Amino acid sequence: MYRNHRAKYLLLKAACSLLTVGVIYTASAREGMWLPPNLKLRADDLKNAGLRIPVEKIYNTNGTGLNNAVVLFGKGCTGEIISPKGLVLTNHHCGYGTVQGLSSVQNDYFAKGFFAASMSGEIPCPGLTVTFIRRMENVTDKILHGIAEGIPESRRDSLVESRIRTWEKAYKHTTGYDASIKPYYSGNQFWMSLSETYRDVRLVGFPPNGIGSFGGDTDNWMWPRHTGDFSLFRVYAGSNNKPADYAKGNRPYQAKQFFSLNVGGYKEGDFTMVYGFPGTTQQYLSGAQVRQVENVLNPLRVTVRTKKLAILDRNMSQSRDVFIKYTSKRAGVANAWKKWQGEMKGVKEHNVTGTKREYESEFSRWAARSAGTGGNTLTEVQIAINASEELAKADEYIKEAVWGIELVQQGAVLEKMRKAFQSAKTNNALRDSLQKIVAQTAGFYKNYDAHTDKEMFAGMMQLYMDNTPLYVPAYYRDMKRMHGNSYSRWADAAFSQTLVSDPEKLKLFASRAELKDEGRILSDPAWQLYSYMTEYRKTDISPKLARYNNDIKRLNRQYMAALMQKEGPDNFYPDANLTLRLAYGKVRGLDPDGPEGYSYQTDLEGVMRKNNPNVEEFRVPEYLQKLHAKKDYGRWAVNGTVPVAFIADNHTSGGNSGSPVLNAKGELIGTNFDRVWEGTMSDIDFNPKVCRNISLDIRYTLFTIEKFGNAKWLLNEMRIVK
Ligand code: ARG
Ligand code: GLU
Question: What is the pLDDT of residue 104?
Fold first, then answer.
């Protein structure tokens, strides 16, 4: 935002010294993730950009808004309702973890894909939820009224916390909806979302990885792209169409609002909007903070994850069982790892830190002129950021590397067991609680391979201890020494002695334990690793870091308040926080005039060009090759091929995966699934020249469902228009 604003600022200032900053802000239309209830403030801009429906259709509180057709899918993706029978479209990578839970070597949905033959064949997905946003309301005054500026930050936090809880309860009571209140604009505003969460969600369609994650990590965050990144689910409801636990007799959710699918195509320059749940952005960080993220923290995270990935890859390539166990976890590790690298590159190449600093000197001059606005906040932020850097690094190593060892995390299970020892009165009661604790670990062990984790232990421990020698608990140093400074010997010992490397060992212990056996927990290496580290963080890192972070949080809030005053509160958008937002822009190639120019669209011919039977990520399923050879595209043929993906300059972020990409009439033309490499820095700085979101063309989705998945019955319940 600053970069963009600054460039225009300089230009316009030269042309006309009387132009105000506010004018310049509204002039940039592409950047921004806007709050649906505030869209009416942008109605003119939306209309000028190309929107052809009233903004009240996009969001309203009387049940007829499109907000009722966009859902939070699981805990971090977006999905959309595309039929009156509760059919949900989202990304393949958003359904990936759920499908892993349903898969095994015998039933390998990643290799074979899955398309239900009828509604009765849809598969229940325990734990998966879908959340509708019925209404959003500005509750800033209810939360902040009477809380004085200048009280200690921790005091303010607890006041705000308790108000949030009280109001959430009150709203839930009066409306019957779930209520969640979150901070916006660094805590200068608070908004409440009223929602309904459905708990019976079933798998309907999932193409094999050869389509749904085609291109894998090699193509991830890249354009041109050829991934059929979609999956289908269905929401089921209990009586009165309301949320209910899974029951065979639940009925498909009856949706009054769902998206029509427009298969008429689009062209460069067409208006598009993305409606969904972007997770986290940091558009308003100061230059000092950007420097720390991009020069210190991201490089550290990338180093740790490079090693993690090498260990995972070695083990996963040797066994399909290990592959299935770790494929979803690996995707998570690799995804951010690659994004950070793109972000670092973009921030450097576009000199984001420099542009931010330039903007900041202009801001400081403005602040000096305007009474009552925190002019020295930025200097104070810089001091706090520099002073806390070593601690921040150490904490990051602990989070990325030490907690990256699953054995250490499982120490938490042993800690729960230890508490059971302390509260139990009889051996029977003790075994009862222990067995309950063990039962909860079944999901973890389904996806656990101790051999892989042991290699992870040696690799991660070395990275951590070699790189932050000053921030290591004494126990860790002692253990390393006791094992002759060999991380792999230490790992061997820990894995053979602990209860948690093997679920059978753990079960046996829980079934036979007596009150006198508490010492077995206390001497367990996983418990010790977990407990010493938890304690060390609690006493030596977190309180010190919190002191700085509280300062930084307060300063960020004050800086934001000043920015809102300077630029006008409605002319810029709050950072993403996993609440419902609308972004809008245009279908647009990437620097089409430059030497590296990319077109805005890809097609099935491109998929076939990338086909490589020797590389798992680029292996096109045989049946798709057949369809291609016969040109058997049915009604999905466009100029003798099938369109696959397209790019546009909508401002999106992680969490927007699966979001509906809509045309000017609010009809769905695609599903958002990624951003382009050149523009991954948009979480920090959105540059309209290079930032693009990548969407799957709805026609490739429908082609895959009908021709590849043989599930034409699903098309019959959709509303397909041209
Ligand atoms: N980059 C996309 C997102 O941020 C897609 C990730 C899934 N694909 C993968 N190869 N890991 O989530
Ligand atoms: N793939 C991302 C997600 O899972 C969306 C792409 C992005 O970060 O913009 O939400």
Answer: 87
Residue with tokens 């004018």: 23
Atom 8 (ligand 2): residue with closest C-alpha? 654
Rama region for 216: left / alpha / beta (φ>0; ψ in -120 to 50; rest) = left
CA gap 318, 401 in Å, rounded: 23
Q: Is 281 in the pocket of ligand 1 (CB under 6 A)?
A: no
Per-domain residue ranges of the chain: 31-129+199-277+580-721, 131-198, 287-551
Q: Which has the closest alpha carbon to 114: 211, 188, 13?
A: 211
User: With a 6 A CB cut-off, is 328 part of the ligand 1 pocket?
Assistant: no
Residue 22 has pLDDT above 70, yes or no: no
- Residue 14: which pLDDT band, with cuts at 50, 70 and 90? very low
Q: Would residue 270 be called left, alpha or beta, if left means φ above 0 and alpha means ψ between -120 and 50 degrees?
A: beta
Q: How far is CA 310 from the centre of its chain?
A: 23
Scored b (16 or more CB within 10 A) or e, 138-155 reads: ebbebbbeeeeeeeebee
For 626, 632, 640, 665, 680, the CA distances from 629, given in Å and listed in that order, are 5, 8, 12, 36, 36
The alpha carbon of 232 and the centre of ligand 1 are apart by a number of angstroms equal to 17
Long-range residue pairs from 703-706, CB within 8 A, at least 24 positions apart, any chain: 703/633, 703/634, 703/636, 703/642, 704/207, 704/211, 704/228, 704/230, 705/115, 705/205, 705/232, 706/634, 706/636
Q: Give the bridge partners for 103, in sequence order.
A: none
For 579, other C-beta atoms within 10 Å of its C-beta total 23
Partners of 272 in the β-ladder: 585
Distance 483 CA to ligand 2 centre (A): 43
Q: Which residues are catalytic?
A: 93, 229, 657
**CA–CA separation, 720 and 270 (whole Å):** 19
Q: Residue 569: what pLDDT?
A: 73
- The CATH number of the structural domain formed by 31-129+199-277+580-721 is 2.40.10.120
What residue type is assigned to position 144 of the chain? L
What are the start-end ranges of the H helices in 281-351?
287-292, 298-318, 320-349
Structure tokens at 94: 């958003």
Distance in angstroms (rounded) separating the CA atoms of residues 676 and 701: 21
Sequence letter at residue 315: N
What is the rounded CA–CA span in Å between residue 537 and residue 550? 17
- Would you tell me how many other CB atoms lie within 10 Å of the CB of residue 156? 20
pTM assigned to the model:
0.91
How far is it, in rounded angstroms, from Cα 328 to Cα 269?
A: 36
C-beta contacts of 310-315 below 8 A and 24+ residues apart: 311/452, 311/455, 311/456, 311/459, 312/452, 312/456, 314/455, 315/449, 315/451, 315/452, 315/455
